[in-house]
Amino acid sequence: MTTDERMAGTLGDAALRTLRVRESVRATPRSRILRLELVGAPFAFRPGQAVRVAPHGRPRRPYSIACAPEEVAERQSLELLIRGGEESIGDADPMAPGSLVDVEGPFGAFVFPERVDETRVLFVAGGAGIAPLRAMLHHALRARPALTIDLVYSARTPDEFAYREELTGLARAGHVRVTETVTRTVEGDRWTGRRGRIDRHLLGSAIAGPDTLCFICGPQSLVHEVPGWLRELGVAAERIRVEQW
Fold it and tell me: pTM for the whole thing?
C-alpha cells in the first residue's frame, strides 16, 4: 500500500451526520440512485471512498460514493448507488425524498491517487461496483483530461447497467472507451452486444501496454480473477488497485 493510500484511509474524521434525501430515482431494476442534501455541510473525501449509511437511527451499511468531489462541491449533494432489496422502495420507503438518513465517513483506501504517472487508466466494474469507479472517472476527466481511459463493465442483464445513458454519452464524446458485457441470457432480451463474463481476452483488448493504472470493483469472483489476468498481460502488481469489503 502506498503512502497516498494509507493517508486516504484516514482522510476525514469519520464523523456521523444526519442528512436529508434530496432525490431517489431508479438506476436499474435492482438499484437506485440516492442523492443526499449537503447545503451548508461541506463534505471532504477522495474519489473512490465510501460511507456508512442508513435511515435515521438504524444500523448503517457501507456504500461507495458514486460522484466526484468536484460534483459534490458544485451540486451540494452526495450521490450513492443503493442496491435494491436492502431498503424498501415501497409506500413505507425509509429513504424517500425528504427522509433523514445517517451518514458516517468517509473511509477507505481504494482511491484515485493525487499523482498519476501513467498515461492510461482502466476501470473494471461488475454490477454495483461501478459506483466508486464512476466517482474516479468523473474526477479523472476533470483533473487529468489528458489520460486515456477505458471502462470494462459487466452486468447480469442489459437493464442492470447503472448510469448506462451517461456512460454512452461520454463514450460518444470520446472521453472514455466503454466495453459492456452481459453475463446472463434472458429470454426475449434484445441485447446485441457482447455476452459472457469479463475474461483475459476482453481485458487484453482494453490494455494498450503494461503502463496502465487499473481499478477493479465488483463481485468477489471478479476482484479475485481480474488482477491475475492483468498481471499475465504485463501489468505490474503496484498498478492494480482492488476494492474489497
Answer: 0.90
Lowest-pLDDT range of 8-22, 66-80, 120-134, 152-166: 8-22
> Which fold does the domain 120-242 belong to in CATH?
Rossmann fold (3.40.50)
What are the phi and psi torsion angles at 56 (to 5°)? -50, 125
- Cα-Cα-Cα-Cα dihedral sign, residues 168, 82, 125, 157: negative
Could you give the CA distance from residue 180 to residue 88 in angstroms, rounded to a whole number? 29
Handedness of CA 234, 176, 78, 98 (dihedral sign): negative
- For the segment 120-159, what is each residue's pLDDT rounded down to a tens digit? 999 999 999 999 999 999 999 999 999 999 999 999 999 9
CATH of domain 3-107: 2.40.30.10
Q: Indicate the domain borders of the chain.
A: 3-107, 120-242
User: Which among 195, 207, 182 is positioned nearest to 126, based on CA atoms?
Assistant: 182
Tally of CB atoms within 10 A around 68: 25
